[in-house]
Amino acid sequence: MSTIFDTFIAPPCHDEIEILYQDDHLVLINKPTGLLSLSGKNPQNLDSVHYRLVKIFPGCTLIHRLDFGTSGLMVVARNKAINAALCQQFSLRTVSKVYSALLCGHLKDNNGVIDAAITKDPALFPLMSICSIHGKPARSRYRVVERLYHELEDGTLLPLTRVELTPETGRTHQLRIHCQQLGHPILGCDLYGGLLIPGTERTPRLMLHASELHFVHPISDELIKAYNACPF
């Protein structure tokens, strides 16, 4: 079995975590881009969502994660019982998540489904791979919001498509690799082709934002419908 070496060192993140809602059971936050969800093994990667929040909410735990470059909505449990209840909702796929993204190029269809199994490959770490034989089932839906052009410094027009992405499963890097599979990587995605098109290499961030999160509050049984405006 191959040994995985993680050489990534996160640059300092000076943006604050925005607390959108809190009660005695859970916290709903807006995660900034450029912040790890969990601290890494390397002591230089100590700063993270969990590292910051546990100072404010002792004993809090993460239910799910967002990639380092992804911003947006996360729900955090304040105790073990809430963690277990929310984890069950995620595992049963009763939690609804919607992401906003900018994709490279103009998509032909206004909506569609990407159905492609995803697997880990230690030899390619940290990349994931599409593999129908060894991969775990992964399915994402997309809907085009608008097709636009971004004017570069030299006057060149870069075609982009703003989309809503809805993952039906929750695999690592699912939306990023599925958009690459679609032939339209997420703008700013360093791992899956979002910085390869001329004019994209200086994109300041991964253009992926968790904009909606719907789940049932474990104590009140109220349906929580959280929305957070896309910052790009």
UniProtKB/TrEMBL annotation:
PROSITE patterns registered for this protein in UniProt: PSI_RLU (PS01129)
Coiled-coil region list: none
A GO term for molecular function: isomerase activity
Superkingdom classification of source: Bacteria
Domain Pseudouridine synthase RsuA/RluA-like: 25-181
Pfam families with a match to the protein in the record: PseudoU_synth_2 (PF00849)
EC number(s) recorded for this UniProt protein: 5.4.99.-
Protein biosynthesis in keyword set: no
Keywords annotated in UniProt: Isomerase
Similarity section: Belongs to the pseudouridine synthase RluA family.
Name the record gives this protein: RluA family pseudouridine synthase
Organism field: Serratia fonticola
